[in-house]
Structure to design on (811 residues):
């Protein structure tokens, strides 16, 4: 069942009913100011950090769901409704929500009065625009009232939800003309404030939530709206809001636009005012003036659309698969950019108050956006590396505003260091910029203790080499990529750290998955050393890789698939010997994509086991059989009900690893089959089952053991976006950046046909036509570049050359 449709020409998803299975959202913002915006106008806004600088409130456990956002109430002769349906939920005569790239537009009507709200964050200002256009489609004059509404958050979202004894005494606002200033805490900090403005003089206003709603009322039936007039309330101590009231008249066929601006101002140190509570309004007025007319808003929206059009033009495909085309050309890359901005910090499944930026997450996300914004990718790498410790380990998460590690989460996730090698390698291959390796980067953000980025990479590699267990496999520490696989649980005393300095100290649980990572990214590190001419270091790294490869074959193979791990008692995890959890997805995918077992004939056997034991019609499950009881030696993974999350759920993030692994052994039919099972555009027809947005990837889908098999959760902010784009762009379509140029190595279904790819690489445009005349799944017969056949499948990059015409013949 569908709840909308794709408009590929406009790069929009069009939702045709507000009653979607879950709120279907969009992200507004490209730099520092962001908003989450749902198809019923729900969501919230923040500046840089969703925890520390939250502008508007949102209650995640609210009933009804998605109840809180930026609302416009219309009262026409006692008939009250909202353009976005919520919160009043009056039946509408028409409704449409268009989620575009960085903007959303909701248009609805009731009694021949149409209301259209376009919401977006402009490129260069810290504000959100809401342009409301009202049109009278009747043959009679209409007189009605309009009320805007937002609820301010008192900045720190956690404190806002908990510290009521203080917060119910600090609300402070100021109203001047059509601007409502939220200056709570200004007398304390005197360095920032928020504002909500309209470009029309209102007939009234409200800034007190209690006055606007009335006693014991909700936002679904505010007292002020029912009474059809504002109370001109000034919040003092209690919960501050911002609401404008307009009494409007429209002639038949007449339209009227009103522009609302929600903004954030952070004063520079020298601009702070000495008098408590007196704010410098000039910066806000400057921004408001920039969007004071409908024409100015239209120009700003056009600039935003052009920005996204240019950004997404770096990689595009034309094939006979329209669903593939729209995901590659539009939605997958768009989602990769959102994960760049958010990591895992703020979604409808992450409150924005806890996780912040993930070390591993941000490194993986970079794989999906480095081709779009290489300069900002460079900055992100240096930010990530600066949270690393001297021994090569790292804070698992850090706050985006402070760049400081999250002490609640801590460190000890022993896969983290290797992901830094992964993202730096991807950046250098994309840009050719080896100079980043010479950048001085602090350890733990201590600028008095810095080393080159290359030294950081060396310590990442060394951390794994010096943390091996009794089987010569990497120690897992607190966990590896699967945060819930806590194999040292029963060996850890309360308060004991998971960090160890060698195999003889502390917990000895080992990870075959990290071993696969080490083989892959150890080779990447060695390649960097080779390009730098550091051949001794290259040799040292490759020797360690070979030893790890042998350790996996000797101690990590279970007969038909790779083991997952050894627990703290050196008992196997992910083995035929286990009663539950006999096979896991992660090592099958990552070991094979790293090349382990390919020449020995083990790779195909492992992937066949995945298909036989883990595959479902909705994707590949993380493990089987599911755990039916709690295992102390396994930890949180066995705490979930069977079929959910890490306990045999379909973790979409690691499905691409298996798809990539299939391309390694040349099975394009199977690789594409796996790709389609978790690709949202291919799931649109079952939205009533899938439930999350049909235009972006979700983190997980309920597995075969779950009550609601096929139901997705945790959409938008997931490594699925980056890894799926890497899979489809580099391994299925086969256009891979490398140090010396672009490698073309497709692995497609036998019936895929011909296709073309436009790829911008180091400021040059590559127009690549792939011809599959023999209907093969993998293999390149010859490549012609600008009319000349080349040797091999690497298209050498030539400095100064701006276009390449490439024809690839598979065979």
């Amino acid at each position: 069942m569908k709840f909308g449709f794709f408009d590929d020409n406009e790069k929009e998803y069009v939702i045709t009913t507000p009653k979607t299975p879950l709120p279907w959202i969009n992200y507004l913002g490209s730099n520092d100011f962001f908003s989450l915006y749902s198809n019923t106008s729900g969501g919230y806004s923040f500046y840089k950090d969703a925890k520390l600088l939250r502008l508007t409130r949102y209650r995640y456990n609210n009933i009804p769901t998605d109840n809180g956002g930026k609302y416009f109430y219309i009262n026409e002769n006692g008939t009250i409704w909202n353009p976005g349906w919520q919160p009043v939920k009056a039946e509408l005569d028409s409704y449409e929500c268009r989620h575009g790239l960085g903007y959303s537009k909701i248009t609805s009507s009731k009694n021949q009065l149409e209301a259209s709200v376009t919401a977006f964050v402009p490129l260069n200002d810290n504000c959100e625009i809401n342009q409301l256009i009202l049109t009278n489609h009747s043959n009679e004059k209409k007189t009605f009232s309009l009320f805007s509404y937002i609820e301010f958050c008192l900045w720190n979202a956690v404190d806002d939800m908990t510290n009521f004894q203080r917060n119910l005494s600090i609300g402070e606002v100021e109203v001047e003309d059509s601007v409502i200033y939220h200056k709570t805490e200004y007398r304390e900090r005197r360095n920032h404030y928020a504002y909500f403005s309209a470009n029309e003089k209102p007939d009234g206003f409200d800034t007190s939530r209690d006055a606007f709603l009335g006693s014991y009322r909700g936002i679904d039936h505010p007292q002020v709206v029912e009474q059809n007039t504002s109370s001109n309330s000034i919040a003092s101590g209690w919960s501050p809001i911002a609401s404008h009231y307009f009494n409007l008249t429209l002639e038949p066929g007449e339209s009227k636009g009103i522009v609302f601006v929600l903004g954030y101002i952070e004063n520079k140190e020298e601009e702070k005012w000495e008098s408590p509570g007196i704010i410098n309004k000039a910066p806000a007025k400057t921004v408001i003036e920039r969007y004071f007319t409908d024409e100015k808003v239209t120009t700003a929206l056009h600039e935003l659309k052009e920005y996204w059009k240019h950004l997404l033009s770096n990689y595009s495909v034309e094939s006979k698969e329209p669903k593939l085309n729209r995901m590659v050309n539009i939605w997958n890359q768009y989602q990769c950019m959102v994960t760049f901005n958010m990591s895992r910090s703020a979604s409808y499944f992450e409150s924005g108050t806890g996780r912040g930026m993930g070390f591993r997450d941000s490194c993986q996300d970079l794989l999906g956006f480095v081709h779009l914004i290489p300069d900002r990718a460079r900055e992100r790498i240096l930010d990530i590396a600066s949270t690393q410790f001297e021994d090569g380990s790292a804070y698992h998460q850090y706050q985006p505003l402070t760049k400081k590690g999250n002490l609640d989460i801590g460190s000890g996730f022993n896969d983290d260091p290797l992901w830094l090698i992964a993202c730096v390698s991807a950046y250098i291959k994309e840009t050719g910029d080896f100079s980043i390796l010479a950048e001085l980067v602090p350890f733990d953000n201590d600028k008095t203790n810095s080393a080159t980025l290359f030294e950081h990479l060396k310590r990442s590699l060394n951390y794994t080499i010096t943390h091996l267990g009794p089987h010569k496999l990497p120690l897992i520490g607190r966990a590896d990529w699967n945060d819930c696989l806590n194999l040292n649980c029963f060996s850890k005393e309360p308060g004991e750290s998971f960090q160890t300095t060698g195999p003889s100290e502390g917990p000895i649980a080992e990870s075959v998955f990290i071993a696969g990572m080490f083989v892959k990214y150890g080779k990447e590190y060695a390649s960097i050393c080779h390009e730098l001419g550091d051949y001794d270091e290259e040799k040292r790294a490759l020797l360690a890789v070979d030893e790890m490869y042998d350790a996996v074959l000797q101690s990590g193979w279970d007969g038909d698939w790779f083991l997952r791990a050894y627990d703290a008692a050196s008992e196997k995890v992910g083995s035929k010997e286990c009663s539950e959890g006999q096979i896991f997805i992660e090592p099958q995918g990552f070991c094979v994509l790293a090349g382990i077992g390919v020449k020995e004939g083990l790779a195909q056997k492992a992937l066949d086991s995945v298909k036989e034991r883990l595959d479902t019609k909705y994707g590949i499950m993380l493990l089987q059989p599911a755990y039916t009881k709690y295992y102390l030696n396994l930890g949180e993974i066995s705490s979930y009900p069977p079929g959910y999350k890490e306990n045999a759920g379909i973790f979409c993030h690691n499905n691409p690893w298996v798809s990539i692994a299939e391309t390694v052994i040349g099975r394009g039919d199977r690789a594409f089959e796996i790709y389609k099972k978790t690709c949202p555009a291919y799931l649109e027809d079952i939205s009533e089952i899938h439930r999350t947005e049909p235009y972006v990837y979700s983190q997980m889908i309920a597995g075969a053991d779950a009550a609601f098999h096929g139901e997705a959760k945790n959409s938008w902010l997931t490594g699925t976006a980056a890894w799926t784009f890497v899979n489809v762009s580099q391994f299925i379509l086969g256009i891979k950046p490398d140090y010396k140029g672009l490698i073309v190595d497709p692995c497609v279904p036998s019936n895929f046909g011909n296709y073309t790819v436009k790829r911008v690489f180091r400021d040059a445009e590559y127009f690549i036509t792939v011809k599959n005349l023999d209907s093969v799944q993998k293999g390149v017969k010859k490549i012609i570049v600008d009319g000349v056949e080349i040797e091999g499948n690497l298209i050498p990059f030539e400095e100064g050359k701006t276009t390449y015409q490439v024809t690839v013949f598979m065979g």
Notes: Residues 492-505 have pLDDT under 50 and may be disordered. The chain has 20 helices and 43 strands. The two ends are 40 Å apart (CA to CA). The longest strand covers residues 142-155.
